[in-house]
Amino acid sequence: MFALLIIPLLVSGSLLVTSPHNIKLFYRLHRYDGQLLYMKVATYGVYSFIVAVVLAYATKYFIPSLTLVTWVSHLIDGSADPKENRITSWLILLSVATCGVAFIWLQICKFRMFVAAKTISSASNNAISINFAKQLIRLNELEKLLSDGSLGQLFFDSATTNRPVLISLKCRKVYVGTVNMISEPNEKQGPNLEISISPIISGYRDKDTLRVLFSNDYNDLDGVDTSIIFPLSEVSHASWFNMDIHEKVDNNREKKPETNRKKKRKYGRTTN
């Protein structure tokens, strides 16, 4: 009998935990696994159940003429014992109310997102759409998940500030560009599983010296989508990039071999 209550409790908890409208919880869902995930679902299911019980007693107190339990007990008439029918009716109504609370909760989260995006859109000096404002809210929440000094934080800053980064892949391929997309977390995987960059230049690292050698320039490809997507697992290392600084420090400590012509100028002619 109590399965009528346990199953809706888990269903309502699952709705709340896995909904992308509840971004604060959804973006952190990948941190939970196994029994910890079940406990998280059950916790939010219990929250919904408590709200449903409070609403049921509030309805009974303020609207005593509303006798849904009696009506349902007469409708099901599953036992000759009226008391048992009444208990079953209460469980059915609480189960429906628990799922209903979860649904209303999600609609409130969705409405809050819309109001926040509308406020940001109205307060912005530049005319931005509500969808763009929603994306800003998601980015702000995503930033809270990233650790300072991590690759994820580096790519996030590049995407939000349009600052170029140098990315070295494990295959020795090198890209310089700005990050234009960071994969959002889901119920199984965290953020930054994949990234997309708009390349400015690309090249490779020398097999022996690992010196960066640029071979391709994308600056003249206006109107062409040259975005490159690759998994974060393929990234060897990354850093901020500035061409002027790169040219100054690129092999600036390497000793240049002196030619015979320079030696003659330096030491002059030999005398017999």
From TrEMBL:
Keywords: Membrane, Transmembrane, Transmembrane helix. Residues 251-272 are annotated as: Disordered. Residues 261-272 have a biased composition (Basic residues). This is Uncharacterized protein. Residues 251-260 have a biased composition (Basic and acidic residues). The chain crosses the membrane at residues 44-69, 90-108. It comes from the Bacteria.
